[in-house]
Amino acid sequence: MLVVYFSSATENTHRFVKKLGLPARRIPLKRSDEPLIVDEPYVLICPTYGGGAGILHQNSRPVPPQVIRFLNNEHNRSLIRCVVSSGNSNFGVDFGKAGDVIAEKCHVPYVYRFELLGTEEDVRILRDGLRANARALGFENPELSEPVDSVPGSASERERLI
């Protein structure tokens, strides 16, 4: 089961993904980097940008532009099976908003949201939930592989799938 993720310079999402222990590919931070093309179904993990805009009745752009570029590739978009997002619960209704937007536009389930870099409980809930629901999410091989990092270098309220 492949995890595709985007992490900003803060590395919060990167640290969370490493704790999952699943094969992972990172969406490049810089436009000048080689674009990521995937060749298997994946779980997308994405941080939310522009927190609080909804509370302030402003337009927000919660999905990072790098993720938009990645998903604008029809091949990449065709392989997404579900989305997970992170955010800051201080932003109320905008907490994890990127997941809502991606799920709606890509017609996939929004399975989980976590705060900032997540907790050990978030890691356990997501990993166990993905394993238990792999077939329902469209993964042919529900077994979780050994960790591979291709990049160098109240919880019940947040649950969606699990």
Automatic annotation (TrEMBL):
Gene3D superfamilies: 3.40.50.360. It holds the Pfam family Flavodoxin_NdrI. InterPro entries: Flavoprotein-like_sf, RNR_Ib_NrdI_bac, RNR_NrdI. GO terms for molecular function: FMN binding. HAMAP family: NrdI. Probably involved in ribonucleotide reductase function. Belongs to the NrdI family. PANTHER family: PROTEIN NRDI. This is Protein NrdI. It comes from Corynebacterium uropygiale.
